[in-house]
Predict the structure.
Amino acid sequence: MQAWHGKQVGQLLYEKAIQIARERELEYVWLGVWEENTRALRFYEKNGFSPFDKHIFKLGNDEQTDIMVKKSLK
């Protein structure tokens, strides 16, 4: 994955997803980000997302906490 860092691929995918959400006249979009993925958390914060909750994501036997983030489109 690091080979793609800094290439703006994430930003382009994000912009396309937001475009689709706006075309569908959605009120908001949300997703979960692993609490230790500070790079992703900064990315979403920079793009206007705010944390609103947490939940446990089980990966095999490992329980990980996801930060739920949301962005209003209205």
In short: The CA atoms of residues 14 and 47 lie 9 Å apart. The first helix runs from residue 9 to 23. The chain has one domain: 2-72. The first strand starts at residue 28 and ends at 34.
